[in-house]
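Schema walkthrough. Field components (list of strings):
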Amino acid sequence: GENVEQHPSTLSVQEGDSAVIKCTYSDSASNYFPWYKQELGKRPQLIIDIRSNVGEKKDQRIAVTLNKTAKHFSLHITETQPEDSAVYFCAAKPANQAGTALIFGKGTTLSVSS
Amino acid sequence: NAGVTQTPKFQVLKTGQSMTLQCAQDMNHEYMSWYRQDPGMGLRLIHYSVGAGITDQGEVPNGYNVSRSTTEDFPLRLLSAAPSQTSVYFCASSYSSQGGYGYTFGSGTRLTVV
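Field assembly_structure (string):
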């Protein structure tokens, strides 16, 4: 089955710096890759997603890139702010599996210091 | 429009007890799923459903049962609680069972088994 590896597990940056979180997946047929942000004690919330027929997607300060050949995708946050501090999860949707079951990475704890 | 509603928010069980975690959505979403979240382990899929009357196992289904008699409800049953089931449980739903749509998560149930 699909396996998603996420790195790094923790990331500390200064306010205004950029942050990059990387994920690799094992199932070459996976076709949907969302990213979720989870603040302490809260539910995960979708922040951006990308489909397998797209290489890059941007939404203000966040962007996601996908390299299907290498089977990895990355989250880029520019001009980080303290409110970006949270746990970020990547996920992949295996195309050959019925339904919409997402397989998640183990998460990256991002800390932005001012 | 309440989104995804989970009850209870907190629960303490004794080893061997059974209970049902409730999940309801009012968005007419086809797809529903249950995840458990443990420190350093990310979100692991327990069971999912692509529509009323259809359920399937995820990554960690042992010790849990589900049913989907209506589109709106997807309860998770713990048959005989064990300390290893201490976790935060999230219910999530998605517009389509075909994938490519982000999840809406419930607020979670924090379960402690003593």
